[in-house]
Amino acid sequence: MFLESTISDIENYPFLNPFRFENDPSKKYWHISTLESLLEENWNSIEEGVTENREYLAAREKIFSSSVFQYFTDQKNRIIQESLETDNSFQILGTYTCLLDSIVQTAFDYSFIDIPLIKERLVEELNHELNYKQKNLPEKKEKLKLLKEQILEMEKNLESGSSSSREYRYFQEVESQHESETRVLEERIEELQQLIPQIQDFTNDKNFVLNHLVIFARGGYGRAELGLSSDRDLGYCLDTNRLNNGEAEMLRQLIVHIENLLRNSGVETAHQYFEIDEDLSRFDEVNTLHTIPSILESRVLLGSESLATNLKNRFFQVITFEPYVLNLVRSFSESKEPELNRMDLKMDYGGLRSLQIPLWITAATFGIFPSQTADLLAFLIQKHLLSHRQALKLCQALEFLHDLRNFSALPRSIILMTKPVI
Known about the structure:
Blueprint lengths: L24 H20 L8 H31 L5 H25 L1 H46 L4 H36 L5 H7 E5 L1 H4 L10 E6 L6 H20 L5 E6 L16 H5 L2 E5 L1 H14 L2 H13 L18 H15 L6 H10 L5 H30 L5
Parallel strand pairs: 2-3
Antiparallel strand pairs: 1-2, 1-4
Helix pairs in contact: 1-2, 1-3, 2-3, 2-8, 2-14, 3-8, 4-5, 4-8, 5-8, 11-12
């Protein structure tokens, strides 16, 4: 299976525009600049009292968490109010998507400034580990030497009958375990001796980071259909083919820092981490096939577009068409009939999945996964698989379901937004 690299030839149908996310840079800039001003203002109030690096990093994390939590709360409450007044739920999905895009961008920018502190902390931890293991290695080797001498002595005693074969086998097992532990210890010491200088040489170059990392939105967030009850699905991928071990480890630490900032701000995400050279065959299993559409229709937030395309192509080449489609068909056929007064708006018959699964099957058939549903519908109109009216009816059905999901999520959203950040 091969993934089409471009969807630029898809015709624009104006009647689909109300259901399409328009990435307005001015709105995103407004969120980011407001957040940056808020962070700077709050940081200036405590900066002078912070001296030690670990304390400095912890203070910056605390400032980010409290500032972004308050901003996120205020903005989400505004979106909730708008959702009760708008005629098109896609406007709410787009507004919420833009807000989260801006917060992720701000978290990255904030974390990038912290790279020297992250590097210093990491080098300190790795040096501590190296010193400990170097001190431990001679003791391990001495124990192994004594074990070998004892086993040689036992071999002599076995011949004379003064030592049991059971005892001898036991000491052989102990020797094998110590040899394995010593070998692992030596390998880790060698790894650390190479890794630490590479990390120390890591430069705080934003272009380098963005050329070797991509952060992308997955699932409903990737389609810019982020509802008030939706999971905030993020993905990270490193271009490990072009990174040494130290550079890769620094970017992993950067990702961990970003996720910590988001989680502590009340913007918890369901995230997946990938390396471009890793084995992806596990995703061709029945229990993981359902995650593939969220990658293929993902939307780049920042970083390398080409890296994101390479990851999508690798996923598309890993999956086997027939099992993939059969798994989607099975998911569709196993959907429950909604009860008279109760319905799962996402999974039951007539819910979102009833609309999305046929679209995913069609996308896999043609090898094209645009990030937005409206673009896929436009493609299907071009292929004469849908009429204009059918595409419009599908969009209207999606709009209605999203509106209903948002409305049903209001009480829970309001409760969650009142929880304090720890």
